[in-house]
Automatic annotation (TrEMBL), chain A:
This is Carbohydrate ABC transporter permease. It is found in: Cell membrane. Belongs to the binding-protein-dependent transport system permease family. SUPFAM superfamilies: MetI-like. Keywords: Cell membrane, Membrane, Transmembrane, Transmembrane helix, Transport. One of its GO terms (biological process) is transmembrane transport. GO terms for cellular component: plasma membrane. Residues 109-315 form the ABC transmembrane type-1 domain.
TrEMBL record, chain B:
InterPro entries: MetI-like, MetI-like_sf, UgpAE/MalFG_permease. Belongs to the binding-protein-dependent transport system permease family. GO terms for cellular component: plasma membrane. This is Sugar ABC transporter permease. Keywords: Cell membrane, Membrane, Transmembrane, Transmembrane helix, Transport. It is found in: Cell membrane. It comes from Agromyces mariniharenae. It holds the Pfam family BPD_transp_1. SUPFAM superfamilies: MetI-like (SSF161098). GO terms for biological process: transmembrane transport.
């Protein structure tokens, strides 16, 4: 049985223009014929039904987040048209209220951004360096090491949590405490463990994906630079990184959304305070403690969703490409 | 949050970036200044070192350590108690069964719906928008999805008006409202629905791309032979996308085995809904039963092991061809 590895999926480089390419190559008639054959009425109806089913839950939550608390509590969101009423109070409540019982999401948004930023950059840089070494510096055992790294990809996170936490509390905690003494404005409980954990866990996939791309760079280009006396460092920065930008970008988006949406790593390595914990953790906490306060939950959930959605909608094409290349991320 | 807090956080990010940039910069500097003798070796080591160090600390050592912990009791003596507990306690057995139910249903249903949808919308007008709609849940966190679906399953007692969509439908058809998330065994399947909701878009995007790679000539040839649409689908399209199907099913299976956030957010594993990944967290980090948590993690590893071996084999073949 033949199998296709993630990176070798038969995908056009540019999903958006596939149709046009098709039309230019085969001419109008063929596309029209295919279209006629495939878009039967049942298929259209079925896909419409699926599309609606998939959208309704999110739409319900979205609409609810703008309804007054009293209406959310007593009537379903689908009664909106018989029973209108929109307000921004829910959002104001979860974002700006200073009462100790409110979710106070502001601090957690900042945390999420801070975590996702370095949680993306660190693995990206380290992985691209390793990918370059695997692709362009030849040694006998490098192939085996590469396969080993690939295999690491599927070690479940769960296996790493307990020992890593122990390592962090033995080595990293004292360092953080020292940093806090030197620069008091930096909280003792800071982002370092979460950054490092995310970077570590992302590496196997990142190395694999970037390697596939970097290995495709024509050997002539690299050889020419070597002949001219360029060092590996220069080749890496001046040639490889610029050429690999599309791959870097798509992995960066992928990793950003992954880190932003993570709960498990945050729960274990952040400590759960306003100093460090991300939005997802706060939201999970709210579900536990304020599970019936739907005006808080709906607005908070939407705030946590909105940034990955913006990233997703604006960079969708690259995101999809990264996903197609990286379909073994677990 | 006060301004000082915000400044502190900004400072952390800036410092983090600065330290990181300095480390990388120094490393590259020394790589280029490596001694002439064996320079390639030094350069290779320099490029690989950070990633390998991270992997050793973050994955290799922990995986070994967890495997050891799983076979020790609280005092550090060797024992099989953790595994005996896992395979004898009714609650723990239920966790294993639930995990099996998850991994049977999620990949198959998500792939089936994703494939059907991909075929239905293939080359239709507005295909792009159809895709985005189904794919959007991928960008939503499992926690966010948990909240969205808790709202769908929300229950109101007695004659109060239902605000959860599912109960509203039940009541509209004259039924009694149900406490969905607390009713065993339906609650496990309702959680599975959430995972399917998230993963179907992923399956659809990959399969849709694969379908476009099936040569039109083959389909037309089959058409000339007088096959109907279903026969063409089964005999031409499905074999043509077999590789992608394998990737999709294995990937979703792995994601499903490790599912944690959904269960955590929606039921916290109560009412007999727990799965291995969630139970591992509960045992190791809530109940301080490190050994049991490690045993569960090891079981998880054993479950994904066949998939690792399969993928490594594929990769090895590819590298030999190259």
């Amino acid at each position: 049985m033949s199998s296709v590895a993630p990176a070798d999926l038969p995908v056009g480089k540019d999903l958006g223009s596939l149709e046009q390419v098709e039309e230019a190559t085969y001419g109008e008639t063929k596309t029209a014929r295919v279209k006629k054959r495939l878009t039967s009425r049942t298929a259209t109806i079925a896909s419409l039904v699926i599309a609606i089913l998939w959208t309704i839950p999110t739409f319900g939550l979205f609409l609810s987040s703008f309804r007054p608390a009293e209406l959310i509590r007593t009537t379903g969101w689908w009664t909106y048209f018989a029973n209108p009423g929109l307000t921004l109070d829910n959002y104001a409540g979860v974002l700006f209220s200073t009462s100790s019982s409110s979710p106070q999401l502001g601090a957690y948004i900042v945390n999420s951004i801070a975590i996702a930023l370095l949680g993306t950059i660190i693995p990206l840089v380290f992985a691209s360096m390793a990918a370059y070494a695997f692709a362009w510096i030849r040694f006998k055992w490098v192939n085996w090491l590469f396969i080993f790294v690939f295999a690491l990809q599927i070690v479940p996170l769960q296996m790493a949590l307990v020992p890593l936490l122990q390592i962090f509390s033995t080595w990293l905690r004292p360092l953080q405490a020292w940093l806090h003494d030197v620069i008091p404005i930096i909280p003792e409980q800071n982002y370092a463990p979460v950054w490092l954990a995310h970077a570590m866990f992302a590496l196997p996939l990142a190395i694999f994906l970037l390697h596939n791309f970097i290995a495709e760079i024509p050997a002539d280009v690299i050889e020419a630079a070597r002949v001219d006396g360029a060092t590996h460092g220069q080749i890496f920065f001046r040639i490889v990184l610029p050429l690999a930008t599309p791959a870097l970008a798509s992995f960066a988006i992928f990793q950003f959304i992954w880190v932003w949406n993570d709960l498990l790593v945050a729960l274990i390595f952040s400590g759960g305070t306003q100093d460090v914990a991300p939005l997802t953790q706060r939201l999970a906490e709210l579900v536990g403690t304020r599970g019936q306060d739907w005006q808080l939950l709906t607005a908070s959930a939407f705030i946590s969703i909105v940034i990955p959605l913006i990233v997703f909608f604006s960079l969708q094409r690259y995101f999809v490409r990264g996903l197609l290349a990286g379909s073994t991320k677990g | 949050m006060t301004t000082a807090d915000l400044l502190g956080k900004l400072l952390q990010v800036v410092m983090g970036l600065a330290i990181f940039a300095a480390v990388v910069g120094l490393l590259i500097f020394f790589i280029d200044k490596a001694p002439k003798k064996g320079r390639d070796y030094w350069q290779l080591a320099g490029f690989l070192a950070p990633a390998m160090l991270f992997l050793a600390i973050g994955l290799v050592y922990p995986a070994i350590r967890t495997s050891v912990l799983a076979f020790q009791d609280a005092s550090g003596a060797w024992s099989l108690d953790n595994f005996i507990w896992t395979f004898t306690q009714p609650a723990a057995i239920r966790t294993l069964i639930n995990t099996i139910i998850w991994v049977l249903f999620v990949p198959t249903i998500a792939t089936a719906i994703g494939l059907a949808y991909a075929v239905f919308i293939d080359r239709s007008r507005g295909e792009k928008y159809y895709k985005v709609v189904l794919f959007m849940p991928i960008a939503i966190s499992f926690v966010g999805a948990g909240v969205i679906w808790r709202f769908v399953y929300e229950y109101r007692s007695g004659d109060r008006e239902q605000i959860g969509l599912l109960n509203a439908i039940v009541v509209a058809f004259g039924g009694e409202p149900v406490q969905w998330l607390q009713t065993d065994p339906i609650n496990t399947f309702l959680l599975i629905v959430v995972m399917i909701w998230i993963q179907t878009g992923f399956a659809m995007v990959l399969l849709s791309a694969a379908i476009k790679g099936v040569p039109t000539e083959q389909i037309e040839a089959a058409q000339l032979d007088g096959t109907n649409a279903w026969q063409r689908f089964m005999n031409v399209t499905v074999p043509g996308i077999r590789g992608a199907l394998v990737v999709v099913v294995t990937t979703i299976s792995i994601a499903t085995l490790k599912v944690f956030d959904i269960v955590r957010t929606m039921t916290a594993g109560n009412f007999n809904t727990s799965v291995i990944a969630n139970e591992m967290y509960t045992q190791a980090f809530r109940a301080s039963e490190i050994g049991r948590g490690s045993a569960l993690a090891l079981i998880l590893f054993v479950l994904v092991l066949p998939i690792v071996i399969y993928n490594v084999n594929v990769l090895r073949k590819q590298r030999e061809i190259r």
